[in-house]
Amino acid sequence: MWCWHMTTQVKEQIIIDGQKYPLLNAMSLPEDDSIIQHKKGVIETSSNCWRGYVGTWEIKADTLYLIDFSSGKYDVLVNLPILADWISGTAKVATGEVKDSSSWDIETYETETHLTFENGQKSIEENYKNGKLNGEWLAWYDNGKQKTRGNYLDGKKDGAWTHLWEDGCPLITLWKNGENITYENDIPF
User: Stretch 167-183: mean pLDDT, rounded?
Assistant: First the structure.
């Protein structure tokens, strides 16, 4: 009879505005092996780090960087920090207190921030409370200029939402309990 035990994984960290937070998901490594590559020979492994590495990431001017890296499995071939332009996806950041912890030390948090990146550039920032969108919601164009800013309350759009077209012209809509209650130029947002 086999008995499998799950080991709590070492969390990566992300620094936002000078403050360090735990990442709830692991960021990927670049496919380009001229930046980071597998070590040759005997490789150190640990059951509490199945991915084989632990990174510390930082957001500077809405751009993601890998600033620290430890691994028994991979070698970094360039100087840190590294512009993480291979990252296209969402980083889930624990921003609140631990709400629950399982017998395997898997933690859930009261609040999280989800940061979506396209080629290392932040494109969306969403805040969650108890699993629902709650708080400020932001989006940016590829050039880094703000696209949309609004708020969620208990999973529903709430208050003034501003969408800036690429030419800078704003479209402002008002939301209450997830319902659009104002139209601007007869265009619903």
Answer: 90
